[in-house]
Amino acid sequence: WKDRGAAVGVRREVDADGRVTMKPVKKGVRDFTFGRILGEGSYSTVYLATDRQTLREYAVKVLEKKHIIKEKKIKYVNIEKNTLNRLTEHPGIVRLYYTFQDETSLYYVLDLCTGGELLGVLKKTGTFDVECTRFYGAQILDAIDYMHSRGVIHRDLKPENVLLDEQMHVKITDFGTAKLLRDPRDPRPPEETPGQSGEDDERAASFVGTAEYVSPELLTEKSASTASDIWAFGCIVYQLLAGRPPFKAGTEYLTFQKIVKLEYEFPPGFPPAARDLVERCLVLDPAQRFTVEHIKKHEFFAGHPFGKDLWRMKAPRLKPYVPG
Ligand SMILES: NC(=O)c1nn(CC2CCNCC2)c2c1CCc1cnc(N=C3C=CCC=C3)nc1-2
After folding, report:
1. CA of 44, closest atom in ligand 1
2. What is the pLDDT of residues 221-267, one digit of tens each?
3. Alpha-carbon dihedral angle through residues 245, 248, 208, 270, given to the nearest 10 degrees
């Protein structure tokens, strides 16, 4: 594990002859005051943390070395770090500033999202109206487009992993289960890019996303592609307007059955343009599914900005969808 991130501070040092030098220093765990737990995963705990020098707040993800080694998850840790290192400059993706370690743990210093999860906000209003669904759908799509352009498939997109910053703008997080394709920007031929030539079998075979949002091809062929993130996008757009995901049953197995049989319905009054968009994302054959480009041109997003103008927009006031 090579720590990442340039020296993030400087320390003034005066030698015996009074000569002053500014030493580049890397931050360490002692430079932070750790606060409440923001989330816990099987291999990590994410804390609210304050940089004691700058008083800036971050989310710091802590992974215990002993646990990772015992559970043989070193590959996951490196995939997440490599993924975050690729996704460095997009407003819709949680940014990794730098990493450090001590004798017990690894630390990722990440953007703090004070708005919490999109799921939490959705639960408060029950549903989102068309304006809010267009705004949040467009920001999620813009971030997916950027991820895919960097050869990253998220594989576990869901409203819990769509966080909100202080402007209530989208920040996608949790790339611990991402699939890395060859980095389109890396000129080296595949055989020379160590560990970047895509999926290793054990990760591919073992991983399945969260039941309600997992794509049919991940369940049947164990293979994920960029189209798998589009399937999850279709589920999220449906959920914002309907207040629940399209595929949900009493058990995971029954939910999987509904997915592979494309067994879902729209509630009465579901907006027609949104319905047409969802139907073109929730297509069993990934090759027939809408792509990001198709979605951007779809009438549901007609006239809606993407790119820089989208991220300059003020987030709309959250209003529930009222059918009819
Ligand atoms: N797994 C992660 O990388 C991660 N997990 N969390 C908290 C999770 C809580 C459950 N749903 C998914 C996210 C974070 C991050 C990245 C970095 C990150 C930045 N800000 C927040 N902020 C939160 C604020 C309130 C409630 C939850 C999260 N959270 C995270």
Report:
1. 1
2. 888 999 999 999 999 999 999 999 999 999 999 999 999 999 999 99
3. -30
